[in-house]
């Protein structure tokens, strides 16, 4: 088809065509409107549907990444679903009553069409329709077809907008993008790493970075001052809805900063990205310490879109005779209108609490039964008869319970009581991901150490280069588990969006932390001696952060699973049904790499 002089290449209606017009098309399929009536145009795309009306008329809905245009072809047309066509025609109003309000282009159609088939296609393995329920392994096997669906197209385009907003925010704030190596060496961040055999160095391996952590710290020693990277990271960990082997981080490091400087830079970037995605800037980012978050929400990544905060009952049961409540910590969760739950549901909740590690779960139904006027609530529970009047009154007043509520009580160690009720809170009250609201929150003052491990030693909660909280340095040797750190997480709607910390840049403090972790001088030297020696050449105080881009995009897209916002993800078992990866290597490649496989031990 040759371009006639009458073909319009300066669309009146849309900005997308201004950049998307090519030698083969003048407009995109989602562009045309009533105001384009009378214009001769050329579109390219896939046949979404085709209907023949007798022998003399065919309707083809032509689809590209922007939408669909109805093309009316006089005579029959040889084209089936998903064939690729170029259609030239004249924009005209649809006859009265034939408009389609569901379509952006629903007022118009192309008439007087000529059609050229650019590629034939086999029938698609499933319908290109967001409503079609298709098994995920089939979707991933034919990902190139799956990605034609409007929802997936929208997700990938949203991802691109978010990444470009993040990048723009970092550049505006004076950060410089630096690429760091993929063929790297182990980084001590706790995740299992992927190894790559080195062909030129028999029996030696590169390691794919679980993050650019050490490289970015070296860039600070190198005087780069403010670094960022949209970095691919690789971790050989079990896959979940919010975890893939490879993922993308907005990785950041800056010199001469405090936690609030790093948090301000990250906040700016994620708010910009949210605005780019949603068209409006979310409200203020909340702040909470780790200890408060555990106390109030029972998790270190609080979902603040809903209340149901945990209530401390220590005061109420301080001198209790009730054996079940004689514990380090007694906490309650109030479920409004929960007293309607039947015995089976209550038993299931008790079982769930035990599964989560609690010794038990006490429940109290709050009712006004038997009370004239029903003003003072009564409790209904197998444990009620063991409570004193003041315990009963305390339980009701501390939880602000009202008739109809259900109170769930756990008595255990502080950490266990918080964690069990925190999980029940999520299971009973959490709104779906796509609820619309965005509640960002900084969680600060994390403990420096987790554990202890099997050897009774603390393990690094973040990584071994995280700076201990300046007020707790004295406790490093005497009470390491009580030491807080200069580490902080960013949380969005209960998802951990990323972590960061101020790093140790002083050799004496690093030595003390290594000692607490049981890392000997020799081991430190062999594992990351290059970093420690770099620090001897003048290390600025520095700190940083990494934002999980896949999670951010999923949340902004309202998707529960990050695979929906990644073009070519792996399945839960780490395979790619489309390419067949992972696959055996040909014998010759193995030989070249010096690899021989040992059968798995039974
Ligand atoms: N490297 C850390 C991570 O990947 C982030 C940081 O501390 O900057 O979680």
Describe the 3D structure.
There is one protein chain. The chain has 602 residues and is α+β, with helices and mostly antiparallel strands. It has 15 helices and 22 strands. It has helices spanning 16-20, 136-141, 143-146, 150-172, 213-221, 259-278, 290-297, 343-355, 389-399, 414-429, 475-478, 507-517, 521-535, 549-557, 587-593, and strands spanning 40-53, 57-64, 67-74, 84-93, 108-119, 176-177, 195-197, 205-207, 226-234, 246-255, 286-289, 311-312, 329-335, 362-367, 378-380, 406-412, 440-444, 449-450, 459-460, 487-492, 495-502, 542-548. It has an eight-stranded mixed β-sheet with strand order 6-9-10-22-21-20-17-11, sandwiched between helices. Helix 7 (290-297) crosses helix 10. The longest helix is centred in the first third of the chain and has 23 residues, at 150-172. It is globular and about 90 Å long. The model is unreliable at 1-5 and 10-15 (pLDDT under 50). Aspartic acid (ASP) is lined by residues 189, 211, 213, 499-501, 544-546.
Structural class: alpha+beta
Bound molecules: aspartic acid
Number of helices: 15
Q: How many β-strands, per DSSP?
A: 22
Offer a concise description of the structure.
The protein is of the alpha+beta class and about 600 residues long. The protein is about 25% helix and about 25% strand.
Summarize the SSE layout with pairings.
Blueprint: H1 16-20, E1 40-53, E2 57-64, E3 67-74, E4 84-93, E5 108-119, H2 136-141, H3 143-146, H4 150-172, E6 176-177, E7 195-197, E8 205-207, H5 213-221, E9 226-234, E10 246-255, H6 259-278, E11 286-289, H7 290-297, E12 311-312, E13 329-335, H8 343-355, E14 362-367, E15 378-380, H9 389-399, E16 406-412, H10 414-429, E17 440-444, E18 449-450, E19 459-460, H11 475-478, E20 487-492, E21 495-502, H12 507-517, H13 521-535, E22 542-548, H14 549-557, H15 587-593
Parallel strand pairs: 6-9, 11-17
Antiparallel strand pairs: 1-2, 1-4, 2-3, 4-5, 7-8, 9-10, 10-22, 12-13, 13-16, 14-15, 14-16, 17-20, 18-19, 20-21, 21-22
Helix pairs in contact: 4-6, 4-14, 7-10
Bound molecules: aspartic acid.
């Amino acid at each position: 088809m040759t371009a006639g002089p009458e073909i319009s290449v300066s669309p009146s209606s849309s900005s997308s065509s201004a950049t998307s017009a090519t030698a083969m098309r003048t407009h995109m399929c989602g562009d045309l409107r009533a105001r384009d009536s009378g214009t001769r145009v050329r579109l390219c795309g896939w046949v979404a549907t085709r209907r023949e009306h007798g022998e003399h008329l065919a309707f083809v809905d032509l689809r590209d990444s922007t939408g669909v245009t109805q093309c009316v072809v006089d005579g029959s047309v040889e084209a089936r679903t998903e064939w690729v066509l170029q259609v030239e025609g004249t924009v005209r109003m649809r006859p009265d009553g034939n408009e389609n309000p569901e379509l952006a282009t629903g007022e118009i159609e192309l008439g007087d069409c000529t059609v050229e088939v650019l590629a034939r296609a086999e029938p698609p393995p499933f319908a290109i329709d967001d409503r079609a329920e298709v098994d995920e392994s089939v979707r991933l096997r034919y990902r190139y077809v799956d990605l034609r669906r409007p929802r997936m197209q929208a997700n990938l385009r949203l991802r691109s907008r978010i990444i470009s907003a993040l990048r723009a925010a970092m550049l505006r704030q004076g950060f410089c993008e630096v690429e760091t190596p993929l063929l790297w060496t182990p980084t001590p961040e706790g995740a299992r790493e992927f190894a790559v055999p080195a062909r030129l160095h028999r029996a030696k391996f590169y390691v794919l970075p679980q993050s650019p952590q050490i490289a970015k710290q070296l860039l600070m020693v190198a005087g780069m001052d403010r670094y960022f990277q949209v970095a691919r990271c690789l971790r050989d960990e079990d896959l979940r809805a919010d975890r893939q082997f490879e993922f993308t981080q907005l990785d950041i490091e800056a010199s001469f900063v405090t936690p609030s400087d790093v948090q301000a830079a990250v906040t700016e970037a994620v708010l910009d990205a949210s605005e780019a995605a949603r068209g409006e800037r979310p409200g203020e980012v909340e702040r909470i310490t780790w200890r408060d978050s555990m106390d109030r929400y029972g998790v270190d990544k609080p979902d603040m879109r809903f209340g149901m905060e945990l209530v401390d009952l220590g005061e109420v049961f301080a001198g209790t005779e009730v054996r079940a409540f004689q514990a380090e910590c007694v906490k309650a969760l109030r479920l409004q209108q929960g007293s309607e739950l039947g015995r089976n549901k209550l038993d299931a909740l008790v079982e769930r609490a035990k599964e989560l590690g609690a010794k038990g779960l006490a429940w109290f139904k709050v009712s006004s039964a038997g009370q004239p006027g029903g003003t003072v609530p009564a409790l209904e529970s197998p444990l009620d008869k063991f409570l004193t009047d003041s315990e009963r009154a305390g339980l009701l007043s501390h939880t602000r319970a009202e008739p109809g509520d259900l109170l769930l009580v756990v008595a255990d160690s502080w950490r266990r009581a918080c964690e069990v009720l925190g999980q029940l809170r999520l299971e009973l009250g959490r709104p779906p991901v796509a609820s619309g609201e965005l509640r960002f929150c900084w969680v600060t003052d994390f403990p420096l150490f987790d554990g202890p491990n099997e050897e009774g030693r603390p393990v690094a909660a973040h990584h071994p280069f995280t700076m201990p909280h300046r007020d707790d340095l004295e406790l490093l040797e005497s009470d390491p588990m009580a030491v807080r750190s200069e580490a902080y997480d960013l949380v969005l709607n209960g998802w951990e969006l990323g972590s960061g910390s101020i790093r140790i840049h002083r050799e004496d403090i690093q030595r003390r932390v290594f000692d607490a972790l049981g890392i000997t001088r020799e081991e430190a030297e062999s594992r990351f001696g290059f970093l420690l020696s770099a620090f001897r050449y003048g290390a600025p105080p520095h700190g940083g952060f990494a934002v999980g881009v896949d999670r951010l995009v999923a949340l902004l897209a309202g998707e529960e699973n990050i695979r929906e916002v990644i073009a070519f993800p792996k399945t839960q078992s780490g395979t790619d049904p489309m390419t067949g990866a992972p696959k055996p290597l040909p014998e010759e490649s193995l030989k070249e790499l010096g690899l021989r496989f040992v059968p798995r031990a039974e």
